[in-house]
Amino acid sequence: MQSLQSCNHYKKKMNATPDTRAYLNEYGIRPSVQRIAVMNYLLHHRTHPTAEEIYQALAPEMPTLSRTTVYNTLELLVARGAVIHLTIDPRFSRYDGDISLHGHFLCDHCGTLYDVPLKTLPEALYPKEHRVNSAQLYYRGTCAHCSQENKQ
Amino acid sequence: MQSLQSCNHYKKKMNATPDTRAYLNEYGIRPSVQRIAVMNYLLHHRTHPTAEEIYQALAPEMPTLSRTTVYNTLELLVARGAVIHLTIDPRFSRYDGDISLHGHFLCDHCGTLYDVPLKTLPEALYPKEHRVNSAQLYYRGTCAHCSQENKQ
DNA sequence: CTTTGTGCAAATTCTTTGCACCAAA
DNA sequence: TTTGGTGCAAAGAATTTGCACAAAG
Description:
2 copies of one chain form a homodimer. By secondary structure, chain A is α+β, with helices and mostly antiparallel strands. Chain A has helices at residues 17-26, 33-44, 51-58, 67-79, 144-149, and strands at 84-86, 94-96, 102-107, 113-117, 131-142. In chain A, the strands form 2 sheets. A 3-stranded mixed β-sheet of chain A has the order 4-3-5. Chain A is globular and about 40 Å long. The first copy, chain A, starts with 16 loop residues before the first helix and ends with a helix. The first copy, chain A, binds a DNA duplex through residues 30, 32, 34-35, 50-52, 64-69, 71-72, 90-93.
């Protein structure tokens, strides 16, 4: 179960890399400078960034960073369950450092991806015949902001 | 609400284009030969095909068909709510002609995309601050087939 | 005859791969 | 000193775009 589960690691503030380093350790991930940077970015930017956005954000501080490494790192983080891979946006993959139970809402007007709080996702909804590793609840529509502006 | 809703249109058999033509009419879609072919394919192949799969399936019968038209048609069908756009598979978009309430399970081993029956998706789970047009419930893991074969 | 739809080719964009170099255990 | 990680350049693959022609109202 790598997502839609209530696990509240890292709820406390952690703006320094030492904590991120420890976080990676919990998931058995060797803490290279690049991996710490990517994980740290995801823990402190709950914007559901794309690989490109992460790369663009980190590149200034790490001139030698490559997109390949960002992609490699994200793949590893997702495989180990430290990060959630969001596929709601057909245009590109987004990533979420918050692995606690919540859904997502994509505004088709402005493209913003919002978190949707969820108490619990009824186990009754789970398919019984297959072994579920992760679950995602996605919504699309028009967000409050865009609804107001467009007066509809 | 274009998906995850219980609307049982077209439950009866319809293997002829006349019905598909009527179906398109219901959604205000002009029934060109190509659109009928794509919609008809989706109504009778519940395999959640990709654009390419649809193209490959129809091309033999329609040598002049182009991928562009398949993409255009799918975009239109989805926009009008006649077809659901599935984004669970990060590699490519899949499409579903069954717009009744159900979730999806993707097997990470064999890549098969299964339907997951759902009674009702609790309205309580819906975000209240935004206007929801569609909802999707996605599961990933190992399917029954692959679980057996791999004895795990 | 005016609007709408189709299809080819080329372009775009996200992501992956091959391979050489670097770094850590 | 062997394994694992990074990064560059190139390739790959899904999708989009521009534009000309065809079809429908």
